[in-house]
Design a protein that fits this description.
The protein has about 325 residues and is mostly helical. The protein has helices at about 5-20, 25-35, 40-55, 60-70, 75-90, 95-105, 110-125, 130-135, 145-160, 165-175, 180-195, 200-210, 215-230, 235-250, 260-275, 310-320; strands at about 295-300, 305. It contains 16 helices and two strands.
């Protein structure tokens, strides 16, 4: 006689189907739970809701939540956050605010995780004033903001090109005892780069690297694009190059260091600008001496693989027409 699967077993299978976007198969298993004498729990419902939103079946998600209210377990924080996230993802701001107002009226959720979803969703959907109003009253309801809360607000200001307000929020964040993280700085540096405010960008770069943070892929790509337009920016970048590299080597953790990639891409761009052909690594005169030197490229295991000079030579030969 075999062992009957319990709700935990079903939850694992349902999660697997939802991750593969096979929501119909997940729903079949959901229906089977009750037939086998078990009851779906909040994890089951939350997984199905996430799966439905992921494939864009918003109407089904709403109906499924309604069924949960009538026959299922009482929704918890994570169910509500999934609903908010799904509504905001598809621009259903009114539905999200309706749910928020209902829950806030009952004071069902005062966890900052819940408020982070509402503030972040509002900012992404152009409702920064509403997000700011909610942010300003957090202390009145006993929900202390965290780093993500401040990042949501900073990102909201940046989306609307309100860089002074974003900077003010950064300073408030520090005054309140919360240290910015890599996301905070990358959002600000990216926005200053996008607006071509190189002086302000340089200031944040120095602060960022001084605290041990690196550029992400999006910031690096924008920086390379700006170098195509104005190579004089490179003088500013090179002043920080050594510091960035030293920081990178200390922070290698199962990933290729973004700063190393930035150095390579800057060098390749200089070669493209000069159209030098790059016959030999050391003969490339368009790359500054302080870039053409042996800086290790790190693989995912943290092993030194090759020098930057070798990479420039190997890749640039194939890239330059």
């Amino acid at each position: 006689m075999g062992i009957e699967p319990n709700v935990i077993s079903y939850n694992i299978l349902i999660n697997g189907y939802c991750k593969k976007k096979k929501v119909d198969e997940a729903m079949q298993l959901f229906c089977e739970i009750s037939q086998k004498g078990s009851k779906p729990n909040t994890v089951t419902y939350n997984t199905i809701l996430q799966g439905l939103f992921e494939v864009g079946r918003i109407g089904d998600a709403k109906r499924f939540f309604a069924e949960m209210l009538s026959a299922g377990p009482i929704p918890n924080l994570y169910i509500h956050c999934t609903l908010l996230n799904g509504y905001f993802k598809y621009g259903l701001v009114e539905e999200a605010l309706s749910l928020f107002d209902k829950l806030e009226g009952k004071r069902e959720n005062t966890d900052i995780i819940f408020y982070n979803f509402i503030i972040g969703g509002l900012c992404k959907n152009g409702k920064r004033d509403k997000a700011r109003a909610i942010f300003d009253k957090l202390h009145l309801i006993g929900a202390l903001p965290n780093v993500r809360t401040y990042n949501n607000m900073i990102n909201g200001f940046c989306v609307e090109d309100l860089l002074d307000e974003a900077n003010d929020m950064l300073r408030k964040m520090e005054e309140d005892g919360y240290l910015p993280n890599d996301f905070t700085y990358n959002v600000l540096v990216w926005e200053f780069l996008r607006c071509r405010k190189i002086t302000e960008m340089t200031s944040f770069m120095k602060e960022m690297t001084g605290r041990g943070f690196l550029f992400d892929a999006t910031t690096t790509e924008l920086l390379v694009n700006i170098l195509r337009e104005n190579l004089s920016v490179l003088d500013t970048i090179l002043e920080l190059h050594t510091k960035i590299m030293n920081t990178a080597k200390e922070m290698v953790s199962n990933a290729v260091v973004e700063a190393e990639k930035m150095a390579i891409r800057m060098s390749l761009e200089l070669c493209r600008q000069a159209r030098c052909g790059l016959q030999k690594p050391c003969s490339c005169k368009c790359i500054p001496d302080n870039l053409v030197r042996h800086i290790p490229i790190i693989d995912q295991a943290g092993m030194v693989m090759v020098s930057i000079e070798d990479v420039i030579y190997g890749v640039a030969r194939e890239s330059i027409v």
